[in-house]
């Protein structure tokens, strides 16, 4: 199977659960001198070799991380700052209290990073995965559940890291970004330090946990600063006060990580997303791009020169009758996309649910990555009044750091657009756009060129390139 992202999600989850079952059914005793280093035979015990650990020590700030340091590892170097350039894998943790926007931001980062030429892996939240598998927390099984969480999370992180290194060379940037939806350290927020350390010992985890992650992004719960947007669901039951308390505990347990960033709710949710994207761009050495593109109608389909580095993708958008009773709900659609490597080789496939709301004068977008099964289940709810939108997209990076996104509508109408994502706080020079993009007129902000509008088009719709 060529689908790197889906393979990683399924494989990491399956291997981790298999490892958990073996841990729960076998004796916990372990030969401390035996380390499995085979990708297929089991988890390896440390993310870094001694040589790699020594090299990465130079990239950390001088901080007190004694709380989560185990064993006799040395402190981080006092010189230098965090740099993402030491490895072919960059690992970022997204954490925070309930209803902080993690799912939407993870989906946004995935789309953004793949368009910039990175491979992206997403390690899903372990506690939720276990609950969905029937391993449900209860007071009398608190320690056992935490043992299970740490066992699975540890194994998933290790597998994702090894997988990320294996596939890094296959992408334009030669780098894989791993996005963790919470990580090992989060467990300290929900149990006592004594229980947490005992669980680490049971699983055989040693060393400085912070060094497993290159950056930590804390997304503050909507309950703190955006309470009008805080919503309870079937899986989110905390009160506003409980959500704030949990959020601040998470800030505390992660506070000693040398590359820890907090994203609050001092503005709109869209601004929060842009700040996260901007900070990750900085970490990876990318220019921060404007969220809203300048859009042009093209006269014809661009013929992009073979020598110009390009990333291609095929999109299918299906609008659905989504069962939402939430105030301000506007519409929802499913997105199925295939990323292409080279001229014919199919790369990653992703499935996304996107919901759009109008809340208190703000347009709020929620995105969530889906499994293939979830996608086809929701596909049954297709809105019969709208047509499936099929697009082909091509991404080209310009010498000034800007990004071109050529959008070719295949169905329900033929249409060619060019979206230009400019570098923030710079004046864009149109003369650097390759001549293959023959622009007719600017249509920025014109809803007639949006997928939502086009999905309702009939055959006689007037929007075209002529």
**What is the number of helices?**
10
Mass-distribution shape: globular
Radius of gyration (CA) equals 23 Å
Q: Give me the side-by-side strand order of the main sheet.
A: 10-9-8-7-11-12-13-6-14
Architecture per CATH nomenclature, i.e. the level-2 architecture of the largest domain: 3-Layer(aba) Sandwich
Can you characterise this structure?
By secondary structure, the chain is α/β, with parallel strands linked by helices. It folds into two domains: 4-28 and 35-283, P-loop containing nucleotide triphosphate hydrolases (Rossmann fold); 294-454, Hypothetical Protein Pfu-838710-001, CATH 2.40.320. It has ten helices and 14 strands. The strands form two sheets. It has a nine-stranded antiparallel beta sheet, sandwiched between helices. Strands 2-3-1-4-5 form a five-stranded parallel beta sheet, with helices on both faces. It is globular and about 65 Å long.
Quick structural gist:
This protein has helices spanning 4-25, 50-57, 102-115, 126-132, 142-167, 193-203, 240-254, 269-283, 372-379, 451-454, and strands spanning 89-96, 119-123, 176-181, 215-219, 260-263, 294-298, 311-320, 329-341, 345-359, 362-369, 389-397, 403-411, 415-421, 439-442.
What is the secondary structure topology, with strand pairs?
Elements: H1 4-25, H2 50-57, E1 89-96, H3 102-115, E2 119-123, H4 126-132, H5 142-167, E3 176-181, H6 193-203, E4 215-219, H7 240-254, E5 260-263, H8 269-283, E6 294-298, E7 311-320, E8 329-341, E9 345-359, E10 362-369, H9 372-379, E11 389-397, E12 403-411, E13 415-421, E14 439-442, H10 451-454
Parallel strand pairs: 1-3, 1-4, 2-3, 4-5
Antiparallel strand pairs: 6-13, 6-14, 7-8, 7-11, 8-9, 9-10, 11-12, 12-13
């Amino acid at each position: 199977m060529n689908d790197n992202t889906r393979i990683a999600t399924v494989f990491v989850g399956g291997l981790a659960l298999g490892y958990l079952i073996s841990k729960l059914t076998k004796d916990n005793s372990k030969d401390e001198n035996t380390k499995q280093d085979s990708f297929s035979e089991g988890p390896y015990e440390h993310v870094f070799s001694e040589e790699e650990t020594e090299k990465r020590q130079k990239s950390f700030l001088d901080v007190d991380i004694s709380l989560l340091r185990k064993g006799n590892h040395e402190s981080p170097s006092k010189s230098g700052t965090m740099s993402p350039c030491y490895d072919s894998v960059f690992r970022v943790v997204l954490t925070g209290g309930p209803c902080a926007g993690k799912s939407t931001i993870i989906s946004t980062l995935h789309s953004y990073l793949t368009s910039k030429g990175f491979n992206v892996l997403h390690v899903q939240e372990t506690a939720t995965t276990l609950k969905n598998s029937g391993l449900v927390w209860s007071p009398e099984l608190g320690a056992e559940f935490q043992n299970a969480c740490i066992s699975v999370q540890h194994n998933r992180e290790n597998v994702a890291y090894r997988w990320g290194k294996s596939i890094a060379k296959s992408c334009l940037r030669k780098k894989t970004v791993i996005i963790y939806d919470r990580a090992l350290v989060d467990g300290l927020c929900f149990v006592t330090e004594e229980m947490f350390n005992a669980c680490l010992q049971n699983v055989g985890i040693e060393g400085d946990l912070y060094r497993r992650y290159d950056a930590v992004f804390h997304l503050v719960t909507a309950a703190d600063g955006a309470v009008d947007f805080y919503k309870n669901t079937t899986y989110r039951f905390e009160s506003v006060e409980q959500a704030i308390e949990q959020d601040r505990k998470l800030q505390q347990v992660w506070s000693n990580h040398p590359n820890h960033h907090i994203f609050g709710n001092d503005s709109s949710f869209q601004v929060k997303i842009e700040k996260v994207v901007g900070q990750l761009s900085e970490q990876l050495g990318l220019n921060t791009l404007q969220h809203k593109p300048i859009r042009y109608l093209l006269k014809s389909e661009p013929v992009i020169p073979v020598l110009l580095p390009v990333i291609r993708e095929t999109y299918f958008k299906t609008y659905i009758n989504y069962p939402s009773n939430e105030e301000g709900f506007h519409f929802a659609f499913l997105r199925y996309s295939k990323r292409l490597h080279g001229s014919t080789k199919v790369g990653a496939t992703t499935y996304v649910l996107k919901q759009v709301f109008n809340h208190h004068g703000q347009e709020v977008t929620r995105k969530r990555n889906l499994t293939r099964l979830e996608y086809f289940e929701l596909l049954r709810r297709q809105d019969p009044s709208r047509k499936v939108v099929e697009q082909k997209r091509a991404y080209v990076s310009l010498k000034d750091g800007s990004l071109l996104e050529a959008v070719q509508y295949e169905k329900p109408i033929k249409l060619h657009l060019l979206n230009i994502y400019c570098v923030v706080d710079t004046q864009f020079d149109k003369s650097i756009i390759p001549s293959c993009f023959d622009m007719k007129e600017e249509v920025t902000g014109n809803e007639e060129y949006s997928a939502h509008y086009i999905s309702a088009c009939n055959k006689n719709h007037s929007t075209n390139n002529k």
